[in-house]
Each structure stands twice: as structure tokens, then as C-alpha cells.
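Q: Hi! First time doing this. I have a protein sequence and I read that you can turn it into a structure. Is that right? Here it is:
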Amino acid sequence: MKIVLAGGGSGGHFYPLIAVAEELRVFAQEKNILHLELYYMAPSKYDEKALFDNQITFVSVPAGKIRRYFSLENFLDIFKTFFGFFIALFKLFNIYPDAIFSKGGYPAVPVVFAAKILRIPVIVHESDTVPGRANKLTSRFATRIAISFPEAFKYFKKEKTALVGHLVRKEVQKPIYEGSDEYLKLNPVLPTIFIIGGSQGAKLINETILSLLPELVKKYQIIHQTGTGNFEEVSSNANVILEKSNDRDNYRPYAYFNPLALRMCAGASDMIISRSGASSIAEIAWWALPAILIPITDSNGNHQRENAFSYASTGAASVIEEKNLSPRVLIQEIDRIIENKNLQESMKKATELSRYEHSARDIAGELLEIGFKHE
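A: Yes, that's right. Below is the predicted 3D structure, encoded as C-alpha cells:
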């Protein structure tokens, strides 16, 4: 049995592929599939360790990216995708997999187009409420389409579309509660707020948090993942802002968290402030944390805003749009949630509505089923 995983360009596209790969390995043991071969087709490895740990062979296939702004690279990348199609066609023919799982993103396009020519069945997964360009294109050739939000049904053919939920790799699913305060050197009595800025679109969140720091650290502990590109600027500005504060140790900026540290932060925190990419929402739901979501305004199809309000409709989060984001609005919303224990508990409970425990397993099972039929 050979299965190709396609997609990438970001962690939101790559790591759901890993979640499905994990379940394919479990199925291989349960069903005594002796020779399960997994391949990842993309321009780059993205996370070489994750590929190695899951015994996934990397196959290089170039792909061009279509940007939503004017750039000469858009013109050049048309040719890159064109040549990527023929390279994918050649390499897929040599491997001749039984099925392909596409997560979307520009690297998936030449692979799925080549699969159509070779008549290899494809399952496409869409994480967002509004599909990206790649999935809008490739879903036309898909055997099955899986979605994370019910709002996405209207964009695909209903007869081959199923709501399966979000795909979250096992190594970040479960928060670690025991020992997390000690690991992070936190005061267990003081409420802890976990802020995930990330490298994309984090500037506004980071600036708002910095302006609030003197007030925040008086009553909360702040774990702030700034993103590697923003860490130096944010941490140096925070040092100046908190230079004379007696509570300066209550602010902890970090550039990046590995999966273990991420689970520790989730276990130690009382609430989270985050963007509303599909992967971020999926992890927040698994961690059962009350959330304040701040969607990026200029996202494809305004999908972050749609994601945020869809998730918030369950009662698990509140949403502050960028146009309404100010230090005063944010601190009032933080206080409203932290100071109301009943509200916190109801928000935690509501996260269960967005936690699909078998989504990766369902897709892995469907891949094997259509793969066996294709053989």
C-alpha cells in the first residue's frame, strides 16, 4: 500500500498531514498491512524530523505560489507550477500510489493535477470555513472531500463531502497539567494568560500587549509566544517598559515552543489569546481553554474572521476584530473572562463541540479503503 501526502507551505497545511500519517501507521499495525509506504510531495521538507519520525519519504516537486498582491513572482511561479506538474506526473507514475491525501496550499496543486491524469484517487481536506484557492481548484478532481467547519459545505459537492473536523497531531493534543508550573517557573496562584502571536500578522497583537504590560503583570502571568521574527524587538521593548516594575517577572516572552513546551503552556494557562487560523482553533479546542480570538483582517476569503465567529458561536471563545482592538477593549475582555469562574467553565465545556477525536483516523481509514479498491 502506497499513499502520497500533498500540501504544505505552512504548518497549518503540513502538520495535519502528519496527524493522518500517524493514524495510517496505527491502521497498518491493526490490519497487518505489512508494506505501508508513505510519501510527502512538496517543494521542501518543511519539518524533516516529523517526516523521519513517521517514516515518510520526501519527494521534491516544485510548485508556484499565487500571491494576493502584485508581484513579478506570480508570473514566474506560473511556469514553476507548470513544470511542477510534469515532474509530479513523472514521479507519481514511478511510485504509482494507491491514494493521495491533499491538505491544500500551493504545493498540492501540481500533485493533484497529475493524479487526475493518472487516475489516482484523491481525498482533499479543507480546514477553514472558506476554502483556499488550491482546494477550490483541486477539489474538482477529488474522490472525497473532508471539511472542518460546517460552513464549508456550500463550496463543495455535497454528495462527496463529509464533516470530519480538525486534524491535530497527537504530540500536541493533550495539555500537561502536572509539573507545568514548575517547568515554566510560574506562580500557581496567579492566573496565567497564554498569547500566541506567531510570525504572521502578529504585529498588532504584540503592540497591543506591550502597551498593556504594566497593567497586565500586576495581576496576571503572561506567556507570550512572539514568533521567531518578532522576538528580539518584543522582548527588548518589554524590558524597557517593565524596567521599573516590581512584577516584571510575570511577563515571559518566547520565540517558539516545541510540542512538549506547548503542552506545558496549555496546561498552565487559564485562557489563551490567538489568531484564528484553523490549526490554532483546533489546538485551542483540544486544550479546552477559554479563548479571545483576533482574526487577521486581510485573510483569503476573510476566512480567519469566519473561522473565529464559527468557533465563538459554540460559546468557547469571544472575538475582537482588528478594527475594534485597543488596549482598553482587550483588558476589559481579559478581566471579564478571568474574573468570572462560571463563564470560564462554560467556555471550557463548549470546546468539546469543536473537538473531533477521530477525524484523522476517519480520513486514514477512508484513504486505505479507496486505496484497496484502486489496487
